[in-house]
Amino acid sequence: MILGLGLEYRDDKIIDRKDIYSQSNDVVAWIGGESDNGQRWVRSGYYELTVPILGDKWSFPGARLFEVMVAQRYDEYGDFGSTAKPKFSFRYKPLDDFTLRGSYSEGFRAPSIAELFSGQTKLFKPGLVDPKTGPLDYTFVILGSNPNLKPELAYSYYLGGVWTPGSKDPVHSLVGFLNGLNVYVDYYNIEKRNNIASVDPQFILNHESLFPGAIVRNTGGTVQAINDTFQNMGRLETKGFDFGFTYTTKECAWGKVDIEFNGNYIWRYMIQNLPDQPFIVKAGTYTLPVYKHSAQVFYSKTLFGMDALSTGVTWNYVDSEQDQTPEPSGKVHVIGNWNTFDYQIGYNFGRAEELTPETPLPGYAKDGKKLVGERAVSPGRDRGSSGWRRYLANTRLVFGVNNVFDVAPPFADQTAGYDARTTSPFRRTFYVELEKKF
Predict the structure, then answer these.
(1) Is the pTM higher than 0.70?
(2) Which of 111, 282, 339, 429 could form a disulfide with 115 if both were Cys (CB 3.0 to 4.6 A apart)?
């Protein structure tokens, strides 16, 4: 039985001082007002208890291992009261080479200090359409903090399996030839309530009745501003599968090869913009890529009995998706998939074995010959001819290239011109890393 305990204390503070230009509205992208500030303290405590039920001598075919883990975290906030959230998990091995694992957990996240007290900005937003009056040239959209936010709540379920063939006894196992292979499949279901986010301004215009007071109009009915500060939305629910494998060959005279593959498939991704409103399905209609993976192959070899050379290639893939903004004709633009390749080479300097010379007997030299008429002197440590290795011991030098073929992210009809959730504007990049362990 294993028990872990912990205590934490945190104090957060934010001070947002406005200069004279902001307070006099001489800065366009700002909404004037007093300086904002806030402070919060958090006291936390947690425990984790692992209870082994079966294992080692207390095991039999069909139940090689079974253990249960119970954990709970207690948080007390200076502004949001207290909460206690549990976690239950298990690990079960019906066979030596196969493991089932699962968990249920609850989460709590109070709004951050910035989401509550960071102030607000007023920005021009072009291209909006008011269903009542038609297209709007430029509209003020007010973004930023909201002191009336509620905490987010999360509930997650997880179940998975791991197969490691031949790991217990590769010599006598029927699948011992697969020793070095590790295969996993995991199912997850995550639900988040009171999701904190800003709404698309166009959605607010299209559903004005759902957002009382969010749209400010003049006496003629023209939109003057849209209040789009952070607020608690409805719910976000996602479920899917993580899967992959790793395989490492045996160490041979020519070296060894490591292969790794990790994939993710989003089975369902739904957003409820407001409580009591219908869910909007994202994944499945390809407004989110439902599949992505990363695969890599690395070769390594031991050199000079103490150093290690490694080099390899990584393949990153993001599936295609439909654009969020339809074209004027109503046709939906398809964002293409994205393939990139990374390359890396590294060299590890190992620690040289230190040789301690034997002290010769009095009257004898190191080679065993007897000294005649000379005083016997005990020799010092052999310095050798490679003292520079002492400074490079436990040092790793890496050179790499991300996005070797300089592939641009596929075009998406969004502000950035690409989908910032799944792709990156950085194309081919080079990097060098130096790591030293003492």
Answers:
(1) yes
(2) 111
pLDDT at 219: 87
Question: What is the pairing mode between strands 321-322 and 307-318?
Answer: unpaired
Query: What phi, psi does 392 have (nearest 5°)?
Result: -95, -5
How is residue 4 written in tokens?
A: 């872990």
Of 316, 314, 313, 310, residue with least CA distance to 345:
310
Contact 43, 9 (CB under 8 A): yes
| Predicted local confidence at residue 16, as pLDDT | 67
Alpha carbon distances (Å) from 300 to 182, 342, 402: 19, 17, 20
Tell me the two tokens of residue 357.
Answer: 């010379």
Tell me how far apart the alpha carbons of residues 78 and 44 are, in angstroms, rounded to a whole number.
12
Which residues, listed in sequence order, are joined to residue 143 by a DSSP beta bridge? Answer: 121
Nearest-angstrom CA–CA distance, 17 and 38: 12
The pLDDT of residue 98: 94
Per-residue DSSP letter, 393: T
pLDDT at 203: 81
Measured in whole angstroms, the distance separating CA 309 from the mean position of its chain's CA atoms is 28
- DSSP state letter for 255: B
pLDDT single digits (tens) 303-344: 988 899 999 999 999 999 887 666 666 677 888 999 999 999
Alpha-carbon 8 to chain mean position? 23
Strands 181-193 and 120-126: unpaired
Closest listed residue to residue 421, CA positions, set 325, 263, 289: 289
Tokens representing residue 34 in the block: 């007093």
The order of strands in the sheet holding 215-217 is 120-126, 138-144, 223-227, 215-217
Contact 246, 258 (CB under 8 A): yes
- pLDDT recorded at residue 263: 97
Round to whole Å and give the CA distance between 84 and 198: 28
Q: What are the residue ranges in the chain where pLDDT is below 50?
A: 30-34, 376-385
**Residue 209: closest CA among 285, 115, 279, 274:** 274
pLDDT value of residue 422: 85
Summarize pLDDT for 338-352 with one digit per residue, the tens: 999 999 999 999 876
What is the rounded CA–CA span in Å between residue 218 and residue 139? 13
Residues belonging to the chain: 438
Contact between 228 and 214 (Cβ < 8 Å): yes
